[in-house]
Amino acid sequence: MTVTSAELAARVDHTLLKPESSAADFAAHVASARELGVLAICVSPSALPVAETGDLVVATVCGFPSGAVKSEIKAAEAARAVADGAREVDMVVNVGVVKDGDWDAVEADVRAVVDSVAAAAKVAGLPEAGGDPEAATRGAAIVKVIIESAVLTDAEIVETCRRCEAAGAHYVKTSTGFHPSGGASAAAVRLMRETVGDRLGVKASGGIRSLAAAQEMLDAGASRLGLSGTAGILAELRG
């Protein structure tokens, strides 16, 4: 599919997760996101609540970047994020548990965060998300699950996505962008989309640094892109 700059921006989570980012960096990030016309920003939990966001959807991360955190800690972190204004929580699956093939534990880990986000959203008086992957655009709170696809086999990607769906997640996402094995690949995005169909969103994130790479992810089935170099990619599209 060929997209305009506005169409691409409407699929972007403009991301700033560098651990050295300061309050000034986050403020500048929000300003640039509004100027670029992106859908969402994704920032560290410590940056919440975020001021001057306008119509931007606010996303944050949970159990980031390793995923090797107890489920109850992830759940508490996710609930706090919703209370602090996040409407999308990108949690990291426990990759070690995936590698162990303990699929019930994988599903339970995701469900703990999904249930916690739903409970926090209810307390905050937010609309119910239901099964809508884009519910955050109407003020609800949703969960995206980062599966770290570059370190998984195809069979592990498929089963992880199935368990995420069974646990009530709204999105599956390729990567944190911090794992040495790499980030998003078109092959992983395609497999994830084939697995979840249109029932869940698919977010490609990690190492997408050019318009060609962004286009490849969209063609493979990504509904969202996590980008840190958004301005350059949109400028490339505008020519």
From TrEMBL:
Pfam families: DeoC. InterPro entries: Aldolase_TIM (IPR013785), DeoC (IPR011343), DeoC/FbaB/LacD_aldolase (IPR002915), DeoC_typeI (IPR028581). It catalyses: 2-deoxy-D-ribose 5-phosphate = D-glyceraldehyde 3-phosphate + acetaldehyde. It is found in: Cytoplasm. Keywords: Cytoplasm, Lyase, Schiff base. Pathway: Carbohydrate degradation; 2-deoxy-D-ribose 1-phosphate degradation; D-glyceraldehyde 3-phosphate and acetaldehyde from 2-deoxy-alpha-D-ribose 1-phosphate: step 2/2. The active site is at D90 (proton donor/acceptor), K173 (schiff-base intermediate with acetaldehyde), K203 (proton donor/acceptor). Its EC number is 4.1.2.4. It comes from the Bacteria. SMART domains: DeoC. Belongs to the DeoC/FbaB aldolase family. DeoC type 1 subfamily. HAMAP family: DeoC_type1 (MF_00114). Catalyzes a reversible aldol reaction between acetaldehyde and D-glyceraldehyde 3-phosphate to generate 2-deoxy-D-ribose 5-phosphate. This is Deoxyribose-phosphate aldolase. The gene is deoC.
